[in-house]
Amino acid sequence: MRRLLRHLRSVLRVRPGKPAIGAGLRTALATAVPLVLAFLLGVKDASWGGLSGLLVSLADKGGSYRTRAKELGAVTLLGAVVGALGAPGGTTPWLDVSLMWLGVTAAAYARSYGETAGSVGGQLAVIFVVSLGAPAVAPEDALARGGWLLFGGLWAMVLSLVLWPLRPYQPARRAIARVYRALAEASWELGRLSREGAGSQAWVEAAQRHMNVRPLMEHARATLGASRGSHMGKSRRGEHLLVLLETCEPMSAQLIALAEAMEGAVREPRFLPLRGRVDSLCDAYAAMAGWVEQVLLHERNDGVPRAPRLAPRSRRRGDRPASGIRSREDPLSLHVDVLFGKLRQLAGVAHETASGLLHGDPVSDRGRSLVGREERRVRSWLAPLRDHLRADSLVFRHALRVGLVATVALVVTQALGIRDAHWVSLTVIAILQPYSAITEERALQRVGGTLLGACLAAVIATRVHSPSALLTVIVLLTAVSVALLPINFGAFQVLLTPDYLLLATLSSGDWSLAGQRALGVLVACTLALLGAWVLWPMPERRRFPDAAAAALRADGDYLREVISRRSADRPEVGAARRSFGLALLDAEASFERLTAEYHGPPQQLESGMAVITYARRFATVVTALGMERPEAEVPGQLRHLAHQAGRALDDLAESLNARRAPAPLPPLQVSCKTDDPVFGALLERVPRQLGMLHGAVTRLSAGPILR
Strand, helix or coil at 500? Predict the structure, then answer.
C-alpha cells in the first residue's frame, strides 16, 4: 500500500514551472496542417503526416539549430523509412510478429547513444508499430505512406527551425541563469545563518536545500555543449557563456568553504562583528549573482537593472584587519576574509563577462584563464553499440525486454480477439522503462490516462460529428496537452490519449475503438509489469550499493587531489570535485528509485540516506580544507592522513561492492602541527566524518533494504 501511495503522489505531483504555451501551439499547428490537407484533398493517407508532425514536434528538446536539426531530421527521415517498410509487414501474421520483435528491439537499443537517441528510438518505434497495424499491400501505398510521413516531419522541422524558431543559445542562457539563481539563494541564506549564529542542524538543512547546484551546473554544461558543438561554438557569445558557466564551479566551492567556516562561529560576542560582515558581503555577492541572472535572461540591454556595486576589496593575510575584527583573537576572521577575497575575484570575472555579453565586448584575459582546454574524444559510432552488447548491460536487457513483451502483447491480443492489437504493443512500449519503479509509475499513469482519455474521446465522438469540428478538437487537445507536459505528465497523458484515438479513427468513423483500447491498455499494463518483474529483473537494491561505493571512491580521490596539489584552484582539483559530484548524483538517483521500490517501513531507509548525506559532508570538509590550507608545501603528516582516510574510504566502498559489513575503522592520526586553529579544526573533522560514514555503511550492510 505504501508503494502504491508513493506512486500516486508521484503521478499527481505538479512540478514547478509554467505551461509551455508556445510549444503547445506550435505542436498543434504541426499536427493540424497535414490533417487539414488530408480533409481538403480527400486523401486518407495524408493523415500520416499529422502523426509525423506530432512526433517530430515532441522530439524537439531545444538547443542549437544544428543539434535540433539533426535530431528532428533523424525522426523525419528514419520515420518515413520505417513507416514505409512496416506498411506491407502487417499483411502476414508471422512476418508481422517477426518485424515487431526486430523493430522494437532495435529502436530500444538506440538508448546506447544516450537519452536523446533513446527518445528518437521511441518515436520511431511508434511510427513502425502504427504502420504495422495498418497494412498496405500495394508497394505504391507503402511509398505514399512514407512520402506523407516525410512531408509531415519536414513541415514540423520548417515550423520549428524557420517559421517559429528558438534562439540557438536561449536554452543555454536559461540553464546558466538557473545556476546563478541557485548560487544567489545559497549566498543569501549563508549570510542569514551567519547573522543569526545558527546551529549545526540549521546549516545541514540549508546544505540540503541547496544541493541542486551540481545538477543545475551539469544540465547547463550539457546544454551549452550541445550548442557549442555546432559551427556557432566559436562565437563570442558562446565564449562568454562558457566563462560564466566555468566561474560557477570555483564560486560554489568558495561558498561551501565559507559555510563550513561560519558553522563554527557560534553565538559569542566576539564573533558578532564577523557575522555582520559576512551577512553584508554575502548579500552583495547574492545581488551580483542575481544581476548576472537578469543579464542572461534578458539578452538585451533593455530592461536590465544597473549592476550592483561589488563589495569592498577584502584583506589578504597580513593586511590590516577591518574595523571590528581582531586578528589575534579571531583567526577565523582572517580565514573568512581570504575566502571573501577569492570570492570577490570570481564575482568580478562574472561581472565583467556578463557586461561583455550584454554589450558585445570580448572576453577578458581573467575570464579566459578560468576556462580549461576543451578536449573532445573522437569515437567510432559503433563503439556505444559494442559497449552495451553484453549480458549485464542495462540497455541491452531493456531492449530485449521491450521487444519481447511488445511481441507477446501482439500475439496475446490477437488470440483474445481484441481489436487494434498494435495499440496494445504501443502501450507496452510507452510503459516499459529500464527501471521497475518508473515502469510502475508509467503503468499507473497510462491506466488512469487511457481510461479517462477514452471516456473523453467517447463523449467527443457522441457530441461532435463534423470532420472539421473534430479537427478543431484534435488541435485544441494537442496544444493543451503539450503545454501541460512540463508541469504534470499525467495531465499530458489524459489529454493526449483522446488525441491519438481521434487521429486513428478520424478516417473510419468507428468510435467503438475507445472501449476496445481501454481494455487493451489494461492488458498492456499487465504484460509490461510482468515483463519488468520477471524478465531480467534488476532491483534497485542491487544497484544502489555499487553507486554508493563509486561515490565513496570519488570522495577519496578528491581528498588525495586536494592534498597533493599546491593550490585548490588547480584544474585537477576541480575535475576531482566534479567527478565526486557526478558520482553522488548517480547514487542519489539510485536511492530515489530504491525508495520507490521498497516495501518496508520508511525508517529502514535511513541508513542509505545517511551514507549519501555523510559522503556529501565529508566532501564539504575536504573542500574547506583545500581552501584553508596555509602551506604551499604539504607536510608529510598531512599526506599520511590523506592516505589513511582515502584507504578507509576505499575499504568502505569495497564492503558495499561485496555486500558485507566493513572492517573496524583504524584510528586516524591527526598529528599535523599548525598554528591556524581553523585549519586544525578542519583536520579534526576528517576522522569524525569518517566515523559517521563508517557507521552508516555498517547499518546499511546489516539492514533489510539490500536483501
Answer: helix
- Cβ distance 548 to 463 under 8 Å? no
Q: Look at the block and give the residue holding cell 546499511.
A: 700
d(CA 120, CA 115): 9
Report how far residue 561's alpha carbon sits from residue 175's, in angstroms, rounded to the nearest whole number: 29
Query: Is the Cβ–Cβ distance between 497 and 457 less than 8 Å?
Result: yes
Of 348-362, 408-422, 430-444, 673-687, the poorest mean pLDDT is in: 673-687
Mean pLDDT score, 587-599 = 81
In angstroms, the CA 353 to CA 32 distance is 44
**What is the distance in angstroms between the CA of the first residue and the CA of the last residue of the chain?**
20
* DSSP letters for 311-366: PPPPPPTTSPPPTT--TTT-HHHHHHHHHHHHHHHHHHHHHHHHHHHHHTPPPPHH
pLDDT tens by residue, 510-559: 555 556 666 777 888 888 888 888 888 777 788 888 899 999 999 999 88
Q: Which three cell numbers stand for residue 47?
A: 493523415
CB 588 within 8 Å of CB 608: no
* Tally of CA atoms within 13 A in the half-sphere of 168 that contains its CB: 20
Query: What number of CA atoms fall less than 13 Å from residue 642's CA on the CB side?
Result: 22
Phi/psi at 506 (5° precision): -60, -40
The yes-or-no verdict on residue 230 having pLDDT over 50 is: no
Distance CA 265, CA 268 (A): 8
pLDDT in tens, 75-99: 899 999 988 888 887 677 888 888 8
